[in-house]
Amino acid sequence: MDTTPSTPNNTPVLDALAEVLQQRRHAAPDDSYVAALHYKGLNKILEKVGEEATETLLAAKDAEHGGLAERQALVAETADLWFHSLVMLSHLDMDHRDVLNELARRFGMSGHDEKAAREQ
Ligand SMILES: N=c1c2ncn([C@@H]3O[C@H](COP(=O)(O)OP(=O)(O)OP(=O)(O)O)[C@@H](O)[C@H]3O)c2ncn1[C@@H]1O[C@H](COP(=O)(O)O)[C@@H](O)[C@H]1O
User: Fold this and answer.
1) Domains of the chain from N-terminus onward
2) ipTM value of the model?
3) Ligand 1: which of 46, 83, 90 to mutate, most ligand atoms within 8 Å of CB?
4) Span 41-66, pLDDT tens digits
5) Nearest in space to 44 (alpha carbons), one of 58, 28, 33, 55
6) What broad class describes the main subcellular location of this protein (predicted)?
């Protein structure tokens, strides 16, 4: 039986969020956090992605030996990181489907094999 996943088509939260992020491209910056990010431009969005990545790795270190609160904090920071990454993609006319397609393409391919293929 072929267990290779097809491109995911059941991602309602991500689908809905991608639509909102696109609608915010031309919304008033005072009314919307996402519109304000788009208005400030790619550099500001990338600054937020970097900030959230750092906060996520600090939360992961705390979660390693922490309890439920630290694990919940890691989930919250990861959500912030995903969210700002999705804003970045949206700013460049891309979305989660591009990333899910790539993960589906890679599924089952050993990371070592994939790296070796890249180096040829
Ligand atoms: N998922 C999110 C989401 N996650 C995090 N955030 C915001 O991301 C910001 C990150 O917090 P920070 O403290 O790092 O940033 P900040 O201090 O507010 O901003 P800076 O001055 O540092 O740039 C907070 O303002 C959060 O509210 C989000 N803002 C919006 N969404 C989604 O986007 C939709 C559209 O939001 P609006 O554009 O605001 O309507 C919402 O309905 C949600 O579904």
Assistant:
1) 41-118 (1.10.287.1080)
2) 0.91
3) 83
4) 999 999 999 999 999 999 999 999 99
5) 33
6) cytoplasm
